[in-house]
Amino acid sequence: MNEKEFLSKYWYKVELTKLCKKFCLQAHGTKSDLEKRILCFIKYGTRSHEKKVKRNFDKNHQIGLQSKFFTDGLSFNDSLRSFISAHLGVKKISFTKHMAHAVRIAKKEKMDITVAELIKILKTPKHFFPETDEDKTCQWNNFVRDFNRSKLTHNFENKLKTAALLWQQVRNSKEDKKYSDSLLKKHSQLIKKYNNT
């Protein structure tokens, strides 16, 4: 497989993991991490030798605002979720991709990040954050989002099924892995049973 062939296909994370194992590459990390690793191997024949961060978590450690993610062995788990929820006075919070991205950047730059900094990221509206490499790998999610936003798709009975059928056509083609209204016409026979018009 060459670089062009690899980039022309949409890969699911499970497929990237299998490729990493096949090429004897490290198979942990985000989709973006796996893609970069495989591309580096395809282009240059080299393997990165990064090591997983080992965490020695002290079970008796009390999480506080100044607790540090790596130094104190924290992870995105129920303990951290409970602390942040209690601090914010809400029933339950969900960790965001921007929080995870900040932790990955801190790890890459050999820095640390506090719980207070993670809370600040959680409270910041999404539109303030630039697109990340990981966002670019979420083509299926973006495809469904754009399909649902289109005024021309409101009459479809099973929107997710319709989007999935169109996605299969796009995924297996050399086209951009993006939704456009032209796909409705191009694949009208394939999706006509879901159209209520």
Automatic annotation (TrEMBL):
Record-linked Pfam families: SAP_new25 (PF18953)
Official protein name in the record: SAP domain-containing protein
Source superkingdom: Bacteria
